Amino acid sequence: MGKLIYSMITSLDGYVSDPDGKFDWGFPEQELHEFVNELSRSFGTYLYGRRMYETMVYWETAHTLADPPPFILEYARAWQAADKVVYSTTLNEVASTRTRIERTFDPDAVRALKAESDLDITVDGPNLAAQAVRAGLVDEFQLYVAPVIVGGGNPVFPPVRVDLELLDERRFGNGVVHLRYGVRHDA
Fold first, then answer.
1. Taking the model in full, what pTM does it have?
2. How far apart are alpha carbons 19 and 35 in whole angstroms?
3. CA distance 41 to 51
4. Residue 12 belongs to a domain with what CATH number?
5. Containing domain of residue 107, as a range?
6. Which residues are within 8 A (CB) of 81 and not within 5 positions of it... i.e. 6 or more apart?
7. What is the pLDDT of residue 94?
8. pLDDT digits (tens, 9 = 90+) for 157-167
9. Where does the Bacterial bifunctional deaminase-reductase C-terminal domain start and stop, copy by copy (predicted)?
10. Half-sphere exposure of 107 toward its Cβ, with a 13 Å CA cutoff?
11. What are the tens digits of pLDDT across the range 142-180?
């Protein structure tokens, strides 16, 4: 059975993008990207909202860039090999292989996907993740906290309480801290 993991880059004050919708402060450098690559080996499926998918579909062709670094190629290959589910009422077609569109988020379908999966599943993007969090589907939270305060924007979490336990942490040379939390079921 796969775990459902909510994984996001966030500012210290809890936003995935600033008030102008920008997240250029969150791009990982090589050390962090190699760590993300290592974690992504356990992901078999990515669940995306439309906007997050439109950001991430870059990886479908990243390997075609002129002389990409090995860590970029590694992530592109892993992303291309995984299944992608895009939840959107407006997207008519996808621009990547192994990708399908779902019109609504169905918690029971995600539960079934988790039960059938040998690999972990990520839910990426705060709006879609909010639905999964509220449905009690998220097993783990993996946050990459960037050393920046943006003062507003799109929040990383919905207004809901979830009791967590710290499973792991790691600091990177660029000031980013990776925090991995599991959901506490005894609270």
1. 0.94
2. 28
3. 23
4. 3.40.430.10
5. 4-183
6. 98
7. 95
8. 988 899 999 99
9. 3-177
10. 10
11. 999 999 999 999 999 988 899 999 999 999 999 999 999
